[in-house]
Design goal:
InterPro entries: MbnB/TglH/ChrH, Xyl_isomerase-like_sf. This protein is α/β, with parallel strands linked by helices. The protein is built from nine helices and twelve strands. It has a single domain (5-14, 24-276), classed as Divalent-metal-dependent TIM barrel enzymes (TIM Barrel). The strands form three sheets. An eight-stranded parallel β-sheet has the order 3-2-1-12-9-8-7-4. Strands 5-6 form a two-stranded antiparallel ribbon.
């Protein structure tokens, strides 16, 4: 796995700022928001100067009961090839219900929903991941997601669930430290315990994002500054392994370029300090 460095999620609203930010080594784009052969000019200019671009999918729903949609897989593969990406990423989630297996109308959730950490759900997820891997021209990395609740009757911790997924499929991991913090607040799960169980040798890269707490729940908004507790989880991860890449996500309420640069600096500082320990 190539070293990516420090990156930021590419969004049209901050495209010009990203082009001028110092020390941005790579960017990640929402795969469904771009069209091969018709890339936005600002994104094409980044590619022309050698910036790595990784497509990040949000619609495969690999944790759902249905097999992955072949059209969506072909589209993701086309984007990986068009961007000359070293890998693609998606989520450990389901995003729709119904369909041929249930005999009910298909319903899109419009949100990333948590997969039950059960043996049956893991079997389905592993099979769907293998299908995706066979269709994609580059390695696949999967992201842990944030959730407001835990399913009843779960049989695995998050760490053990992801470890078995990696062992059975060889998939890489995209570890979102903000989501680990979210699940700490919302589900009482210890981020350190999760990191201790994760197969960090499979780490592809790391997401960092901001959020806020309201009425005892943490909202992974991607629209607020990165908080100290999230940076602390990042530091804990970096004390265990040197991530190939770390990426800042921001999807709304975009700040000025100076604030984005300061957040990137804070991420770099947390990483460096942890690795000195």
């Amino acid at each position: 796995m190539k070293t990516l460095g420090t990156g930021i999620g590419w969004r049209p609203e901050i495209a010009e700022d990203i082009a001028r930010l110092p020390g941005v080594d790579w960017v990640e784009v929402v795969a469904e928001n771009i069209c091969p052969g018709h890339l936005p000019d600002a994104l094409q200019r980044l590619r022309d100067r050698g910036t790595t671009v990784i497509p990040h999918g949000v619609s495969l729903g690999l944790g759902g009961a249905d097999r992955p949609d072949l059209g969506r897989l072909v589209a993701l593969a086309e984007r990986a090839e068009a961007l000359d990406a070293p890998l693609v990423s998606e989520h450990i989630a389901f995003v729709r219900s119904g369909g041929p297996l249930t005999g009910t109308p298909r319903v899109e959730a419009g949100h990333l929903l948590p997969v039950p950490r059960t043996r049956d759900a893991l079997d389905v997820l592993c099979e769907n991941v293998r299908i995706a891997q066979d269709m994609l021209p580059v390695p696949l990395a999967l992201e842990n997601i944030a959730a407001f609740w835990s399913w009843p009757g779960e049989e695995f911790t998050e760490g053990r669930f992801l470890t078995e997924l990696v062992e059975r499929t060889g998939v890489r991991l995209l570890v979102d430290v903000a989501n680990l913090h979210t699940n700490h607040v919302n589900r009482g799960e210890d981020p350190r315990a999760a990191l201790a169980e994760l197969p960090l040798e499979a780490l592809a890269y790391v997401h960092v994002a901001g959020g806020f707490e309201r009425d005892g729940l943490w909202h992974d908004s991607h629209a607020h500054p990165v908080t100290r507790p999230v940076l602390d989880v990042l530091a804990e991860l970096c004390a265990r392994v040197t991530p190939p890449g770390i990426l800042l996500e921001r999807d709304d309420h975009f700040p000025e370029a100076g604030e984005l640069a300061a957040e990137l600096d804070a991420i770099r500082a947390a990483s460096r300090e942890a690795q000195r320990v």
